[in-house]
Write a structure and sequence with these properties.
With 247 residues, the protein is α+β, with helices and mostly antiparallel strands. The chain has two domains: 104 residues, 2-Layer Sandwich (Fructose-1,6-Bisphosphatase, Chain A, domain 1); 123 residues, D-Maltodextrin-Binding Protein, domain 2 (3-Layer(aba) Sandwich). Helices cover 32% and strands 27% of the residues. The strands form two sheets. It has an eight-stranded mixed beta sheet with strand order 2-1-3-4-5-6-7-8. Strands 10-9-11-13-12 form a five-stranded mixed beta sheet, sandwiched between helices. A hairpin with a 4-residue loop joins strand 6 and strand 7. Helix 5 runs parallel beside helix 6. The longest helix has 28 residues. It is globular, with a radius of gyration of 19 Å. The termini are far apart.
């Protein structure tokens, strides 16, 4: 294993030791060590020990530690820690808070920064219809927002805390250990959270749009929809020009 992977595994082992001591009857699923514990348990802990491993390996201080508790199909509690900043964003399913210097304070979303984080890392399950990098070239995006690429789901905690206006990613996220903590934080903070096309999470095209407010969310979904409709239309036109009928 390389240095970054060693750190991932050691971090996951440390988290598991704490959880197993407190909740020995639960199940656990981590990015590095896979599933363990009681397979039949109603409570499952989802662990992403270092989200932003490449940043960490490159000595770039942008990473997070994500832990979420899923019970009866929903996230009941979650934490997203920024160890280098000394901050832990957390939710009990109702409140969204950040702990710093041993004190908790409520966080609220805001679109004031106009900064939108996008995930440009593969896989891209909708790549034939949508790519986040193409959205950045949309004149409507440049007129309203400014792009950032944090490359860690800490960006979702920042949407919940008003440091980012929104976050966009492609992908099928239902069984991912990376996203549940950040999504739960955004939902508890009152963000607008949906799939790529504004649909309920984990349905249709999948993906994620988490925005500080309805206006920001609607603007981003409109830009994304242009990609979903433009490419099929272009293919149909190309087929017609070549004498082929679209199937």
């Amino acid at each position: 294993m390389d240095f970054a992977t060693d750190a991932d595994v050691e971090a996951e082992q440390a988290i598991l030791a704490v959880l197993r001591a407190a909740r020995p009857a639960d199940s656990y699923r981590g990015e590095e060590l896979g599933s363990s514990g009681n397979d039949g348990a109603d409570r499952a802990w989802l662990i992403d020990p270092v989200c932003g491993t490449l940043n960490f390996a490159a000595q770039t201080p942008m990473m997070a530690v994500n832990v979420a508790l899923r019970a009866d199909g929903r996230i009941e509690a979650a934490a997203c820690a920024d160890p280098l900043a000394g901050e832990v964003f957390w939710t009990d399913g109702e409140r969204a808070l950040v702990r710093r210097d041993g004190r908790d304070r409520a966080i609220l979303p805001s679109a004031a920064t106009r900064l939108v984080d996008v995930n440009l890392d593969p896989p891209f399950p909708n790549g034939d219809r949508f790519l986040a990098v193409r959205m950045l070239a949309d004149p409507a995006f440049a007129a309203r927002f400014r792009a950032r690429v944090l490359s860690t789901t800490l960006a979702l905690a920042w949407v919940a805390a008003g440091r980012r206006a929104a976050y966009v990613t492609d992908g099928h996220l239902r069984d991912s250990v990376h996203f549940p903590a950040g999504i739960a934080l955004c939902q508890a903070a009152g963000c607008v959270v949906s799939g790529l096309q504004g649909q309920p999470l984990h349905t249709g095209a999948g993906g994620l749009v988490a925005a500080a407010d309805h206006q920001t969310h609607a603007a981003l979904v409109e830009m994304i929809d242009r990609q979903f409709t433009a490419l099929p239309a272009a293919r149909e036109a190309q087929g017609c020009q070549s004498g082929l009928r679209p199937r």
